């Protein structure tokens, strides 16, 4: 488990709903629940500061960390996709992003590829990426923020020939790999969900700390699907698709763990002295 990746999960799942800022002591204590040392956590925080994901400030002799505007946008995008309830109706159009970025700017080019993959685009050719979803505004934001609009074009197009739409999806995305990842998720978490559900139905007490760790790991794992599953419209899904089953399992288990996990977080969480009281913070 990479400390930086888990920090994204903790901020996205908890901190962003409590004013978006947290004392470093609380953060290291929470991360310690996963066996991560204070040294490892502080090193990850330093990297995230350098990369522009986090911001820091001092209040007295204490350090507090919050997500930067860039970090908040990424968390908002992730939350919108993770907790999305329904798939949009497909308009039958493909969005195409094509670029020709010079070799001298290959660092920017590589970063653009990562951003397109994160959004859910599939690679048709090295410099041509496609998506069945309307992600035009998100691509525009990325391109304009990096000042590379002179090298990138976006199209809204019909697919004429020669592959069928599902075949095109098979060419640009590894559907079998995505399905296998969902199968693994179901295999790991269905027994855990069913066991906890039975215990709760029997009136057993589930420790809040267990709920916090288990829910965080659940979200941490499920968040990985954002990098491989572009949220295909129904028309493009294969006949055997485990994404829906995995999604339902995720939400069911999440709901079981949520209350206890939130209680544990609130016991450890320490906001800055000038933060709003918890009762004034809007929870998810």
UniProtKB/TrEMBL annotation:
- The residue ranges of the Transcriptional repressor PaaX-like C-terminal domain are 173-266
Q: Which Pfam families match?
A: PaaX, PaaX_C, PaaX_M
Instruction: Name the source's superkingdom.
Output: Bacteria
Domain named Transcriptional repressor PaaX-like central Cas2-like: residues: 89-169
The segment(s) forming the Transcriptional repressor PaaX-like N-terminal domain are 2-70
Q: What InterPro entries does the record point to?
A: PaaX-like_central, PaaX-like_N, PaaX_C, PaaX_trns_reg, WH-like_DNA-bd_sf, WH_DNA-bd_sf
Q: Which PANTHER family match?
A: PHENYLACETIC ACID REGULATOR-RELATED TRANSCRIPTIONAL REPRESSOR, TRANSCRIPTIONAL REPRESSOR PAAX
Under what name is this protein listed?
Answer: Phenylacetic acid degradation operon negative regulatory protein PaaX
Q: What is the lineage of its organism?
A: Bacteria, Bacillati, Bacillota, Bacilli, Bacillales
């Amino acid at each position: 488990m990479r400390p930086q990746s888990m920090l994204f999960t903790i901020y996205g799942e908890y901190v962003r709903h409590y004013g978006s800022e947290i004392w470093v002591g609380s953060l290291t204590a929470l991360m310690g629940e996963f066996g991560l040392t204070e040294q490892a956590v502080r090193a990850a925080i330093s990297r995230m500061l350098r990369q522009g994901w986090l911001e820091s400030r001092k209040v007295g002799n204490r350090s507090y960390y919050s997500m930067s505007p860039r970090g908040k946008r990424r968390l908002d995008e992730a939350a919108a996709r993770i907790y999305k309830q329904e798939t949009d109706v497909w308009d039958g159009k493909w969005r195409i992003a094509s670029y020709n970025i010079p070799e001298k700017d290959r660092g920017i080019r590589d970063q653009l590829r990562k951003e397109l993959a994160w959004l859910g685009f599939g690679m048709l050719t090295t410099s041509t990426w496609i998506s069945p979803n309307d992600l035009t505004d998100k691509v525009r934001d990325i391109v304009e923020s990096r000042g590379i609009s002179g090298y990138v074009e976006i199209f809204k197009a019909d697919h004429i020939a020669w592959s069928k739409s599902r075949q095109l999806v098979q060419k640009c995305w590894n559907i079998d790999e995505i399905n296998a990842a969902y199968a693994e998720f179901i295999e790991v978490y269905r027994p855990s969900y069913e066991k906890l559900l039975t215990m709760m139905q029997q009136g057993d007490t589930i420790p809040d700390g267990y709920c916090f760790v288990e829910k965080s790991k659940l979200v941490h794992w499920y968040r990985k699907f954002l990098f491989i599953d572009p949220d295909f419209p129904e028309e493009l899904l294969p006949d055997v698709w485990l994404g829906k089953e995995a999604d339902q399992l995720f939400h069911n288990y999440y709901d079981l763990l949520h209350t206890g996990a939130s209680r544990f977080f609130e016991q450890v969480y320490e906001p800055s002295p000038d933060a709003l009281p918890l009762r004034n913070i809007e929870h998810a």
